[in-house]
Amino acid sequence: MEIALEKTNSARIARALVKARMAAGSPAMDMAFTLLVVTDDENVAEALKTATTLSREHPSRVIGVILGDGRGAAHLNAKVRVGESSSGESILLRISGELTKHAESVVLPLLLPDSPTVVWWPGKAPTNPSEDAIGKLAQRRLTDAEATDSAIRSLKSVARHYVPGDTDLSWTRLTPWRALLAAALDQSSGKVTGGTIVAGSGNPAATLLVAWLESRLKVDITTRRSDKGDQIMSVALNTHGGDVLIKRISDHSCHFSVPGSSPREVPLGPRTLAELLAEDLRRLDADEVYEATIKHMLEDA
Amino acid sequence: MIDNPLRDQRDRRLPRIAGPCSLILFGVTGDLAKKKLIPAVYDLANRGLLPPGFAIVGFARHDFGTQQFAGMIKKAAKDGARTPWSETVWKQLAAGIRFVPGEFDDDDAWEQLGKTMAELDEQQGTGGNHAFYLSIPPGLFPVVVSQIKKHGLAESTKGWRRVVIEKPFGHDLASAKELNHIVAEVFPRESVFRIDHYLGKETVQNLLAFRFANGMFEPIWNNHYVDHVQITMAEDIGIGSRAGYYDGIGAARDVIQNHLLQLMALIAMEEPVSFNASSLRIEKQKILANARPPARMDLHTARAQYAGGWAGGEHVLGYLDEEGIPKSSKTETFAAMRIDISTRRWAGVPFYLRAGKRLGRRVTELAVVFKRAPHQPFSKNDVEELGQNALVMRIQPDEGVTLRFGAKVPGTTMEIRDVNMDFAYGGAFVESSPEAYERLILDVLLGDPPLFPQHEEVELAWKILDPVIAHWDRQKSIDTYPSGTWGPESADAMIARDGRTWRRP
User: Fold this and answer.
1) For B445, which of A62, B188, B266, B325 is 20 to 30 Å away at the CA?
2) What is residue A37's predicted lDDT score, i.e. its pLDDT?
């Protein structure tokens, strides 16, 4: 990393110094965790780009694991990179042949000492993430039901095998909605008697939102199918004082109305994968509210 | 908020959003409001931490319309925000912006303010929750506070009313008491938020977490192991445009009274039984009540003014040459003093405090310097380059912790030299630390006062400082130091008398 400064003074030089140091990441220091990205040839470029963006905020050792063709002799190729445009370090492992069944043996010696390990499956995840050989190495396991062919089924599958430390990113995607709803109920004091969600079919986040609302509010939530794509389009909660309604009006904003004050437009934008991961990795312990929510979802089904 | 079934304290993804409320800014056209407050409000909104029905009301002499005022806020937010600009976020904020023009003694304007507040309760759903932010010189406090009282704005049947005041909290013990008296007449103590932005909550919490969440530091945190403590707050800038405020105030009143003595209390205090506001305050007050200024002021305090010269590659003026400073001014731009704390833990451990402008670089840090090992198995030659172990907590910039200890130099001879082990908060955590003002404003809106000093602390700090300032006032002359250096010779001499030296931060 190089920063050119002209017409400057000591304070600016000092600031640039700090910036350069952070951007270069001091190896083996200040690295918060090892991030394992298990993927295939097709998705690896995008996934590693996301991981690199993430490590700009959060220096980590990123290990990309590409599991290739399982046939033939064991074969391992690797690429190592430190610094350059990303902070932290990255290792790309290409594994093929018999070794694909023992990928954890490659990964284990590469984990940072003491620091936590996180594994992220950007695409298809193992049926039982915590029993997976690589998943076993990690404290946090991130799956992404939305990236699979049958999202709801994938979500339910990881939910059935939940152990503390698992999270599906569809839960993370839901945070802005949950924050708005909680803010709405901060404002209206009446008890919630029911509610309706309008969302596209096969949206795992919508399924989780229903389960969350039902488990927290102890009321039934009706789901209606939206004809405008697969996003969550609106959530209405009926309270004694009137309805709380949050309705999406564009990709970036929604109408927010609570009884007793005039409706307004508030931001509700899409977030990048890197932002989702950043939110998830802010905490490396189990998410108990998520656990309660998926439990409710499975009971309901 | 407790009743909201969607909130759960285990749910740490959901941000703590302030309830619907408004922030009523007095002195909104000032530098502080433009550079710090408004950008912080925008950043909070952008991070989704403000309620959907948030409102900002400006009250100032200017002949603005609400539109013009919104334009000014937009510019300030755009210029100063640390998070990316988003029109949607701005649109949400803009819907809650109001402006009330008027003089502080103009009753009609206050009537108008009252109407605006009621109107916001209606339109924005602020529900009677209003925070008055007094970003104005202390001289105007009496008129503003009495107007708030006169027009009944401090009370409401529903919602809360809070008042935020900025330092300085007086200029000596007597004026601090008077100031408190004025505010306390109108607002109950739990509604008064004294903002000390150098002591953002983040900093304080980092310090507390470092000291009390770890097991390895507390056992050596006493006079058995600690030789002395140095607390430094250095600025590389001069007084800039603050001549009117700064002259007659000086470094001791400006920063030692509040920031440095607060930092000292945090570093020296016993472990509070819990982290609620009152337990923390009790422990800090014990330290402040038992800290005393030096017995020999002439030996253990130093003060000086910066002289012109070259600082950091730029030519700068001396203090007396700055615009608006009388040539006869004896106001100090550098102050240093030794403080002793009479407790079992700290007896015999001096705390050296120094603060100044136009010093080597901008830095605020606490250095705990340890005693040397009682016995060295190495020869005197081997440890010639070994200093004292030190633990340095950097507050700004680049918040972090440095541990300084001796290590053997590789090679065939036994030679031990000091090395640093460094940790930077920015390097190890996902979220960059929010600006102090963001935390402070959010805490005010959430009604979460733990780390704001209350008037007892303010008064105790003045009790420590008043005798020192009185001693300085009796002196006929004041030392000087070249700009861009680490202070006057008298400060070096002061600490050398105790056989110690200042660290170079």
Assistant:
1) B266
2) 93
- In B, minimum Cα distance to A88 occurs at B427
Is the CB of A187 less than 8 angstroms away from the CB of B6? no
Q: Among B7, B10, B12, B13, pick the best mutation site for testing chain A contact (most A Cβ within 10 A).
A: B13
* Cα distance between residue A146 and residue A173, in whole Å: 10
What is the model's pTM? 0.81
A–B CB contacts, 8 A cutoff, strictly below: 141
**Residues on chain B touching A291 (C-beta within 8 angstroms):** none
Give, as one character, the DSSP assignment of residue B385. B
**B470 to B253, B463, B467: CA distances (angstroms):** 12, 11, 5
Within 8 A of B362 by CB-CB distance, chain A residues are 11, 14
CA B500 to chain centre: 28
Of the candidates B1, B52, B430, the beta carbon closest to that of A266 is on: B52
pLDDT in tens, A138-192: 999 999 999 998 999 999 999 999 999 999 999 999 999 998 898 888 877 678 9
The pLDDT > 70 percentage for chain A reads: 87
**Strand B363-370, strand B226-234: pairing:** antiparallel
> What ipTM goes with this model?
0.76
pLDDT at A73: 85
Q: At what angle do helices B277-290 and B261-268 cross, to 10 degrees?
A: 110
In percent, how much of chain B has pLDDT > 70? 96
In this prediction, residue A27 carries a pLDDT of 41
Asked if B119 has any chain A CB less than 8 Å from its own CB, the reply is: no
Strands of the sheet containing A89-96, edge to edge, are: A75-82, A89-96, A60-67, A33-39, A117-120, A140-143, A166-168
Minimal C-alpha gap between B305 and chain A (Å) = 21
Option in B95, B361, B428 nearest A11 (CB): B361
C-alpha to C-alpha distances, A132 to A142, B32, B296, nearest whole angstrom: 13, 55, 71
Tokens (6 digits) for B496: 């050398």
| Per-residue pLDDT tens digits for A195-251 | 999 998 889 999 999 999 999 999 999 999 988 778 899 999 998 888 999 999 888
Terminal Cα-to-Cα distance of chain B (whole angstroms)? 45
- Asked whether the beta carbons of residue B429 and residue A179 sit closer than 8 angstroms, the reply is no
CB neighbours of B101 closer than 8 A, spacing ≥ 6?
B60, B61, B62, B63, B64, B109
Bridge partners (DSSP) of residue A81 are A90
Mean pLDDT over residues B184-209, rounded? 81
